[in-house]
Every structure is written in C-alpha cells, then in structure tokens.
Write a structure and sequence with these properties.
Blueprint (H helix, E strand, L loop, with lengths): L1 E7 L9 E6 L7 E10 L2 H8 L8 E2 L3 E9 L11 E5 L9 E5 L4 E2 L6 H21 L7 E4 L5 H12 L3 E6 L2 H9 L4 E4 L5 H8 L5 E6 L6 H7 E9 L13 H5 L4 E3 L3 H4 L3 H16 L7 E6 L3 H9 L6 E5 L1
Parallel strand pairs: 9-10, 9-12, 10-11, 12-13, 13-14, 15-16
Antiparallel strand pairs: 1-2, 1-4, 3-5, 3-7, 3-16, 5-6, 6-8
Length: about 325
C-alpha cells in the first residue's frame, strides 16, 4: 500500500526534507505495521538531517510516534491489531503516515493519554525518566540545575524534579521562557543571556552548588555546568543543541571537587525490553497523576516538517511539538 513519509537523500538544511510516496508492505517476523496519529519532533532529528549523527542515505527521519497497530507479524505476542501504542527510539522513520517497526520497541498507550500527548512525551519523557530516576536519582532536598528549562525535556524535568522534592534552578534565554519554566516547577530561573550562570547558582544555593546539572545545550553551557556543581556532584551532558562539548582534561573534574561526568543516551537505558517498560510505566504514572503535565505547544502538518525544523533551530518553539499525518 502506498503512503507518504518525510525522507532525505542528502544532509543539509531543512530544505533536504522531502514528502515522498512510499510502499509499506506486510510486517515481517517480530514487526508490526503502525498507522501514526501523531509524530514527535525532537532536536536529535536535526542532528540526523545535518549529518552530525551520520545515517545511511537515503533515509527516513524521526524517532517518536503514537498510533494504532494495523497488522502484526509472526511471533508478536504482546500486541494485537487495534492496540493504541507509542514509542521513542530507532529505527528512524517516525515522520510517516504508516511504518513497519519492531514490536518490542512499542509500549501500550494508556487510554487516558491522547495520541498527540503520547507522541509529544515519549522521547522527552523517557529521557527525563532515565535522567532523574537512573543516571542521577534525584532526592528530596537536592538542588538541581536544568538547562533549557522551557524546552521539551526541560518542562518535563522541572515538573518531575519538583515533584521529587528538589529545589529546581532552570536556565532560559528570555523572560517569556522563564515564566513558562516557573509555571512548570522551576523555583529559580537564570537568564543566561543576561547573567553568568555559575555565580548565580552559588548565590542561590548559599555557596554549595547543585547535586546535578542536566545539560542538553552542550558547548555554550558546559563550563557553567561544571562550575555550578557541589563537590562529588554529577554533570550529565545529554545533548548538544549549541554544538559539541569541548575536549577537556580529566583533572578539571578533580579540581572542582571530584566531580562525576557522564554522556548518556536513551537507547542504552531502554535497550532491554524490561527496562523500557519500567521507565515507560514510571513516565505514564507521573503524567496520569497530574504531577507532570505534557503540553503540546505547536503542531504542524507532517508534510510541513521542514518548517518545523526551521522553527525548532531558530528557538521559536517551546515545550513539545508534534507533526500530524
């Protein structure tokens, strides 16, 4: 059957994204055919498009979606036709009307969570889940630093960290974004365009510093993150929206108080089916409890994915964005 998908044949700017007719056949062993009702937009998509994270070309794009199972391949036990499902992670191909996908990457979407919310929350929500509950387990009373606090991961992380009893310090680029972060749990917001982050963090924490810095920005915030940590604090570098983190000497960690540094990725925290289901359950529970609200701030028609990428890279988007087939 013929459907449409966004594909790219060369790396480059948003203009390389093409709306193409594709044939989607029957699912093979271990696969299902999934009809998307909503597709997620994430910053990592721009890394695939530009070639920062190389992929074989031509390629589909997109790592997240929610929809309904249309057909089930041989050996698939935990899903059936008609199931509402969502996913985050590979293989690429989320920007599509219909796709084939390994069944073990899908989780059932609770009835109380819409497809749009499901597509908006899986990658950013599972990322937040592993960051706050696995990489560094946030404890009541912790001071935590969350960069890009008004972004997709940022808004979820601020709410979740606050619900866990942390004091949340966020950074944003504008007063408008700062207000959004405060409305989602940030106790303090630093405008990094107007003041140096690390000295302000010291001031806000009585000189102590934060237990953990969650940094998805990269190059522009790296040293500020390290300089904001308390002794034995953890620097979690999970993205590079401003460019790759610079090379640094290990002694820099020693000199700042025997710090920990990690560069995690979602795939390693969800590689085992049991780990994926456990993280997804924690995410769905915290959303269904109302402690974390997932807000879809922008929607675009899937065929207009190039414009969505332009707006994302120009920092015009806030919170979560979904593409509608």
């Amino acid at each position: 059957m013929t459907n449409h998908a966004i594909r790219f044949h060369q790396t480059g700017g948003p203009e390389v994204l093409q709306w193409e007719a594709v044939d989607v056949g029957a699912p093979g062993p271990g696969q299902v055919r999934l009809r998307h009702h909503a597709c997620g937009l994430n910053y990592i998509d721009t890394y695939h498009r530009t070639g920062l994270y190389p992929v074989p070309l031509p390629s589909g794009i997109g790592l997240e979606g929610a929809g309904v199972v249309e057909a089930v391949g041989e050996g698939v036990q935990h899903l059936k036709i008609g199931d509402r499902v969502a996913y985050a992670g590979g293989p690429l191909g989320g920007y599509s009307e219909v796709r084939l996908i390994p069944a073990d990457r899908l989780v059932r979407l609770p009835d109380a969570i819409s497809f749009e919310t499901g597509a908006a929350m899986m990658l950013q929500g599972l990322t937040t889940a592993y960051l706050l509950r696995r990489t560094y387990r946030v404890q009541p009373g912790d001071n935590v630093l969350i960069h890009a606090a008004a972004g997709g991961v940022g808004l979820i992380a601020c709410q979740w960290a606050k619900a866990l009893g942390a004091t949340v310090i966020g950074t944003t680029s504008s007063e408008e974004k700062a207000a959004l972060a405060r409305a989602h749990g940030a106790d303090h917001v630093i405008l990094y365009t107007k003041e140096a982050v690390a000295p302000k963090v010291r001031e806000l924490t009585g000189g102590e510093g934060v237990a953990v810095a969650y940094d998805g920005v990269g190059k522009d915030t790296f040293w500020a993150s390290l300089d904001s940590l308390r002794p034995l604090g953890m620097m979690v570098s999970f993205g590079n929206a401003s460019g790759a983190v610079p090379a640094f000497e290990a002694l820099e960690l020693t000199n700042r108080g025997s710090l920990f540094f990690t560069r995690p990725k979602l795939a390693d925290y969800t590689g085992k089916r049991a780990d994926l289901e456990a993280l997804a359950t924690e995410l769905f529970d915290v959303v269904l409890s109302g402690k974390v609200k997932i807000e879809v701030k922008q929607t675009y028609a899937l065929k207009h994915a190039a414009q969505a990428h332009r707006d994302l890279e120009a920092r015009k988007t806030v919170g979560s964005t979904v593409l509608i087939p």
